[in-house]
Amino acid sequence: MKKIITSTLLALVAFAAANAQGTLTIQSSKYPFSVYKKIHDAAAQNDLISLLVKGNVESVAATVAALGGVYKYSTGDISSVRIPANKINELAAKPFVQRMDGCEGKIQNLNDTAIFTNDVYLVQHGVGLPQSYNGEGVCIGIIDEGIDFNHKDLRDLKGNTRIKWLWDQRLPLDTNYTPQPYGYGQNFTNTQIDNLEAGNVVDHEYSHGTHVTGIAAGNGVAVNNYRGVAPKADIVFVAVNENTSDNNFLTTLVDAVQYVFSKADSMHEPCAINISLGTYFGSHDALDLQAQAIGNLIAAKTGRFISVAAGNEGNAPIHLHTDVTPDSSFTWFGGYTTNQALYFELWSDSADIANIEWMVAADQTTPYNTRGETSFSHVTSSLGYDSETIFSGGNPLGLVETYVDYSFGRYSFICQITPDSANYRWRFMTRGTGKFDAWSNDLVPGALPDSVTFPLVTKYKLPDTDQNICTSFTCSPKVITVGSYANRNHYADVNDVQEWDTMPVNGGNKITVGSLSGFSSHGPTRDGRIKPEITATGEWVLSCAATYDLNSLYLIAPNDVAAGGQHKRGTGTSMASPEVAGTAALYFQKNPTASYQEVKDAIMGCSRTDQFTNASPLPNNHWGYGKLDAYKAIKGCAVGIDEAYMPANVFFENYPNPFTDQTTIHYDLSSLKRQNGNAIISISDAVGRKVHDIAITGQEGNIVVNKNGMGSGVYFYSLILDGKIIRTNKLMVM
């Protein structure tokens, strides 16, 4: 999993000094701090800034054009635009504009036995299915850092690229290649790739995008059959820009999603997208415009699906939850380097934060004592930007800068502290009634003084390792978020040496195959929903690698290169997510018009459980609904309960399965050459109690089953001919 790092997100540059005389507030919360920064960056007033705008689409498009900007496209009531920074306030003042977003940040990264472990192999060989499924006629979209399109696993048997479209957002403008209406980067067709016109597209130094693509769609042609999940899928790849000029990564990510889906539409193919990128900062409730826009794109039509990586901060104490009481409580943010800014984000629903006050203090650590502090303030009464320098006597200790924003029923409170000395811990203290969640890489998780040394420490709130999942689109209910478990603990390297993970834990190996990866991030979302929804193999997965990465590894770490020299070992939820995206592609090959919810229901409802997942009741915020079982998801949860004497050429299956409102059971008994007799479909619940019987006539037909009074859970439906059970399948009601 690659993450977006918000290091020095609140570098307030020129406009902080300009407003040093007092507080500058905005009249209404129409945009977050990332947009405020762009407006007040004196060096970028005429730059075109990428924004998402929620409001009347026609009015937004006309106004943006009149202001010298560019309207790109819309999804639902959210428009993607580019507009000069000095015109943003003029657009925001329009009554038809409800909200703007332009999230900032840089990104960091969040086949082999995997196709067996995730039960993909049975699907690819069509065991007990109408045919084998390999992704043919389906688009796999990969949004990542870059790709080595010369890898043989990403080419067909004739040597032609399987990448139908490639957009590198990092490349400079070029009239021949820059795609419109996006207006940045360069894109290439498969013909242009084969004609060597895309030679300047490269992967990241660790070949993250190449590795992820191989897991989802590699065909195993290169060597040793390191095949991915959907080896015959068409590939559309977008290489995102880690260092966009106006730090609007999440905005350009929406462009990438729209680009992939539009290219799939042009090929008349359903499409499953994988995104192994994310950020840990934000509301974690999917109400930001990026998450809403991506959700709108998914739901705009059937045959669309997105799988995302949960994140790799499973053991990191980056989250703080506080139930605020009248008796003050606090948490320290540790700064040990002079002038290194400390950053945190606080989020709370309006009802939960209305009665909370906050303050910041500088506490000396040698010895412990308080040197200076701000007064208590209410978050809800200080919308916009503010700054205050904390003094000790006449000596400045540090600058405290805040930005308060309100949108969609919740407040965000962003704080950056720039210390003048490394000798302080910075205390964020609250009092009143309510609750909030905060995220930061600078929380102090331990090494606290005792109550004699610093009496206030009895009111300390420790950060935790809960809710360390990525935010924004990762928390959307319209995507499926994927955690990781251990795939393997040994393999043959390029020198034919067996590489084992030999660090002993309790007398065994460090990696226990099948166990949850310690790094796998988990939820819930801030509004209490289960995340991730599913887990797949993400630890020690062998897949494609870029040539220059392999050449480097040959010299410094040949043990990381797999046998054959064309693949390497990778670890992270980044490696788990494409297993699920590939499975969705196989599902679309069988059911091209399935909705995203049908695919999600099949993957979650037909998951696999074992001794690892059953340690706690499912679903939960570590395993989700269990482990990916591609075979059960494609087959419809009917694995392992066929009657032994079921004729092989009798068709009896329902779709969708799982279902929310209704499903259709299709039966074909023509091969039995029956003329008469009693035939029924009998439905029973998980403990064998009959729900109802449905009489069937004819050799072939469809029976629609409505949910009616059936509660969510597991049911079984049996085909009974002349009093004899011919076949029993599992039925999942969501």
SSE map:
Layout: E1 2-5, H1 13-18, H2 33-39, E2 48-55, H3 57-66, E3 70-75, E4 78-84, H4 88-92, E5 97-101, E6 106-109, H5 114-117, H6 121-124, E7 139-144, E8 163-168, E9 186-189, H7 190-194, H8 208-217, E10 234-239, H9 249-266, E11 271-275, E12 277-279, H10 289-299, E13 304-309, E14 319-324, E15 329-334, E16 342-349, H11 350-353, E17 355-365, E18 368-373, E19 377-378, E20 384-392, E21 395-407, E22 410-419, E23 424-439, E24 480-486, E25 490-492, E26 498-500, E27 534-539, E28 541-544, H12 547-556, E29 567-570, H13 573-590, H14 596-605, H15 630-635, E30 651-655, E31 662-668, E32 679-685, E33 690-695, E34 700-706, E35 713-721, E36 724-733
Parallel strand pairs: 1-12, 7-10, 7-11, 8-10, 11-13, 13-24, 24-27
Antiparallel strand pairs: 1-6, 2-4, 2-5, 3-4, 8-9, 14-23, 15-23, 16-22, 16-23, 17-18, 17-19, 17-23, 20-21, 21-22, 25-26, 28-29, 30-31, 31-34, 32-33, 32-35, 35-36
Helix pairs in contact: 8-13, 9-10
